[in-house]
């Protein structure tokens, strides 16, 4: 058993108000204050003071030659330390006491674009001596942990995922990090460099920059603080960070790294030193670019320094190249996070305790992204030892390690997808306000989007569960409940205008209607192999899959007419956002092809994905929709009450079974937001076709009475027809209409459902109608399938409709030059009339029974085509 060493370091922290000297100065927008005769830089956002490093960073107006560099070195008494491809040059004055004077002088040099001072920052820790016997942050009974064991059931890490640890250096000789008795290591080796003769002695390299990256013998990383290839460092901090991420797991010794493998290599640890006892901001931009250029997928920063434009540029370059960057929020108990955690390209992490609340020292605020355990964190330390320590320094590598597991499962994850998944899967702990800002739903100032849940994050990127809702409250859980044929995630727009409300489909040949489908993400999962297919069928309370949805024909008179078919499909864009909206063009069938039910169509969407397949299906569309969140069904139409009697919809009633059986119909006023009582809205009617009428004569009626041949009045808001003895696969037609008593309040509506159930009262299917006063909406919202030229106001009505032959055309006022023509669906003329002036016209349709089109044109420029059914 290895020796367990508990490090006890004493740090003096000044709390409360910080007292600065009265002597201050500003150079190039950097503010300095003198403390005990030394100038210090003030972080203007947090108020923190930083010691100055002995280096100045210069940007030149154009790339300087070697000769120009030498001239500058001589003129200002300084030496070039390093430079990078972003155009930042770090110089060290020969005498540090001259740094401020040289700074001022360089600002006046005509070849200098910018210059700034650098700082020695802090590694963000609060060591303590509390001893624990386990890594509580991985698993504990109170569940204030990251649920790592479940995540390990999915992956334990992969050596192809490299995490760059920019810190004080890490002891790669530690038996739980480098080579031990188990003969493998998690230290990343630069394969472009020849190995050292002695693997534990950086001086035994070949002295050649084998891979040409500008760093000689960087086989095990690079120390930018000391400009050499010994990246171990004298301070425990970086070793502690490294063990949290990648200590070898299940190797029989020491601790378990979160991405440490399974008695085999886990994530690779790229060791990059940026300062022995404090990070040198002058070196950090070069260290970030080094990690980016040498294969790092993740950069871990457990430090804070003063803001720097050179670091900003390097962070942006790394992020854009696909490197995910994690940084500790800071330990100052501040309500704003430190730098570079505050950079927009960095994922900021605060700390929680064993009781799942914010650690008292943890910086927080509006820009904090997430939190993770940061108190009494057991990890590796120098010399094959182990110890406990506190701080956001040790909460952020827990997040970096989780990202390494996520990338081990799916190497194609983008930075945006990683960030979204971490936030989406976090546990909302601590009883904090996670809704303080409507634009950042789910965010708290104390813990960001919550405390990390490693299992849920890894699970989300390893599985896919996407769905369309059946009801507004549907969250994707199977089986679903409620009405299945009124999905809020399918809607029609007559034009591709991006609207979010449903319009009834419009018959036109010059351009399509557009069906929009919303795809929801159930578990923050990534959508990468899915498409959605769309089908239509003529409206019916009884529909069978796939019979009525794919190349399905029924006879209309003597003609076989398409009643259902596949419309089209589209791929679902790769995304892990909460929802994606896709659209599919649709040309609805010609209403002239139908007699009954000329108006109404049902739409069915089906998400198909190899990683999220549709489950076992039967013939019942309703049952399939209940049991599969990949399937949704839309069977809703919008009607204006004032035109409802003349544009009344027909609906098919079907026995979808192969044997004769009893079916039932429920007719319900489901919702009424008009403020008008049911009985005062108007008279509600249904009209059955002749086949259905014969069956209704033998059925049981509740809340309905027969008022005429084939016609029934609905007396109560909830009515029923039971025991309709339907033949196998038989189809019937039912017309639903209202004769209004009054005009409803503008914009208000009722929702009415016709629901078909089987003998056991199980739902088979249904029709939903939204009926109201929509007079301010365009006509295609008010009516069902209409002619594309029918875009004028409704300036007349036709009664009766259906008719036995004679019709009356009633105008809303007196018009001049009224021309009227009547044509059959084949275009044959069956009547015409001209009226010089008037407000009412009567004429007779002298053709056979069927559907006719009545065209009306006036001298005032009004035109409209209406459908009339002759019975």
Automatic annotation (TrEMBL):
GO terms for biological process: proteolysis. The keyword Signal applies. NCBIfam families: Por_Secre_tail. Residues 159-449 form the Peptidase S8/S53 domain. PANTHER family: CEREVISIN-RELATED, PEPTIDASE S8. Keywords: Hydrolase, Protease, Serine protease, Signal. This is Subtilisin-like serine protease. The active site is at residues 167, 237, 393.
């Amino acid at each position: 058993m290895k020796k367990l060493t508990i490090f006890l370091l004493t740090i003096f922290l000044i709390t409360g108000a910080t007292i600065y000297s009265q002597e201050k100065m500003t150079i190039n927008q950097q503010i300095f204050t003198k403390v005990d005769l030394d100038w210090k830089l003030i972080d203007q956002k947090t108020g923190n003071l930083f010691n100055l490093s002995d280096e100045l960073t210069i940007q030149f107006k154009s790339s300087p030659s070697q000769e120009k560099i030498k001239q500058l070195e001589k003129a200002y008494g300084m030496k070039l330390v390093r430079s990078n491809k972003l155009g930042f040059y770090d110089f060290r004055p020969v005498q540090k006491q001259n740094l401020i004077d040289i700074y001022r002088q360089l600002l006046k040099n005509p070849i200098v674009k910018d210059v700034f001072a650098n700082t020695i920052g802090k590694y963000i820790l609060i060591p303590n001596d509390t001893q624990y016997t386990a890594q509580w942050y991985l698993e504990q009974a109170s569940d204030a942990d990251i649920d790592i064991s479940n995540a390990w059931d999915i992956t334990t890490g992969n050596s192809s995922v490299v995490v760059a640890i920019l810190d004080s250096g890490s002891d790669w000789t530690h038996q739980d990090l480098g080579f031990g008795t188990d003969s493998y290591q998690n230290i990343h080796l630069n394969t472009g460099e020849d190995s050292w003769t002695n693997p534990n002695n950086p001086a035994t390299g070949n002295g050649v920059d084998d891979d040409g990256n500008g760093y000689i013998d960087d086989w095990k990383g690079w120390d930018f603080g000391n400009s050499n290839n010994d990246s171990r460092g004298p301070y425990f901090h970086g070793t502690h960070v490294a063990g949290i991420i990648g200590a070898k797991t299940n190797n029989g010794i020491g601790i378990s790294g979160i991405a440490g493998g399974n008695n085999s290599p886990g994530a690779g640890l790229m060791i990059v030193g940026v300062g022995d006892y404090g990070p040198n901001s002058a070196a950090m931009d070069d260290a970030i670019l080094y990690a980016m250029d040498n294969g790092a997928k993740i950069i871990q920063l457990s430090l804070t320094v003063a803001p720097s434009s050179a670091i900003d540029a390097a962070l942006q370059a790394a992020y854009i190249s696909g490197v995910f960057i994690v940084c500790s929020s800071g330990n100052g108990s501040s309500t704003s996070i430190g730098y570079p955690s505050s950079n927009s390209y960095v994922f900021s992490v605060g700390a929680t305790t064993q009781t799942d609340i914010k650690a008292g020292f943890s910086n927080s605020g509006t820009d904090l992204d997430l939190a993770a355990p940061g108190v009494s964190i057991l990890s590796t330390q120098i010399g094959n030892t182990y110890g406990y320590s506190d701080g956001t320094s040790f909460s952020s590598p827990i997040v970096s390690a989780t990202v390494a597991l996520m990338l081990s499962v799916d190497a194609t994850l983008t930075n945006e997808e990683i960030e979204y998944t971490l936030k989406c899967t976090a546990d909302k702990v601590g009883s904090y306000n996670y809704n303080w800002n409507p634009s950042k739903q789910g965010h708290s100032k104390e813990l960001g989007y919550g405390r990390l849940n490693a299992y849920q994050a890894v699970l989300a990127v390893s599985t896919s569960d996407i769905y369309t809702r059946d009801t507004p409250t549907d969250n994707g859980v199977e089986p679903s409940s409620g009405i299945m044929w009124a999905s809020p995630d399918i809607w029609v727009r007559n034009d591709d205008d991006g609207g979010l409300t449903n319009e009834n489909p419009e018959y036109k040949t010059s351009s399509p209607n557009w069906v929009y489908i919303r795809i929801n993400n159930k578990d923050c999962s990534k959508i990468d192999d899915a498409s959605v297919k769309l089908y239509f069928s003529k409206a019916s309370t009884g529909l069978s899959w796939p019979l009525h949805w794919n190349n399905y024909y029924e006879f209309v008179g003597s003609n076989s007419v398409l009643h259902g078919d596949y419309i089209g499909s589209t791929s679902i864009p790769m995304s892990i956002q909460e929802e994606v909206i896709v659209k599919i063009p649709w040309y609805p069938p010609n209403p002239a092809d139908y007699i009954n039910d000329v108006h109404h169509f049902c739409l069915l969407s089906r998400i198909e994905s190899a990683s999220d397949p549709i489950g076992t299906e039967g013939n019942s569309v309703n049952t399939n929709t209940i049991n599969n969140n990949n399937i949704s069904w839309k069977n809703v139409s919008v009607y204006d009450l004032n035109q409802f009697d003349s544009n009344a919809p027909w609906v098919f009633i079907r026995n979808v079974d192969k044997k004769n059986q009893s079916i039932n119909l429920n007719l319900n006023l489901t919702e009424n937001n008009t403020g008008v009582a049911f009985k005062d809205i108007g008279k509600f009617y249904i009209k059955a076709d002749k086949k259905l009428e014969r069956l209704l004569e033998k059925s049981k009626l509740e809340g309905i009475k027969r008022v005429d041949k084939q016609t029934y009045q609905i007396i109560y808001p909830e009515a029923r027809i039971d025991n309709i003895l339907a033949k196998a696969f038989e189809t019937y037609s039912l017309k639903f209409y209202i004769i209004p008593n009054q005009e409803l309040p503008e914009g208000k509506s009722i929702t009415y459902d016709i629901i078909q159930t089987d003998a056991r009262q199980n739902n088979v299917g249904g029709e939903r109608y939204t009926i109201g006063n929509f007079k301010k909406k365009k006509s295609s919202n008010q009516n069902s399938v209409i002619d594309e030229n029918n875009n004028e106001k409704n300036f007349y009505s036709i009664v009766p409709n259906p008719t036995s032959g004679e019709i009356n055309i009633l105008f809303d006022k007196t018009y001049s030059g009224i021309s009227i023509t009547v044509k059959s669906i084949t275009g044959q003329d069956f009547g015409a009339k001209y009226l010089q002036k008037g407000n009412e016209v009567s004429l007779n349709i002298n053709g056979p029974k069927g559907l006719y089109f009545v065209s009306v044109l006036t001298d005032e420029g009004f035109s409209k085509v209406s459908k009339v059914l002759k019975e």
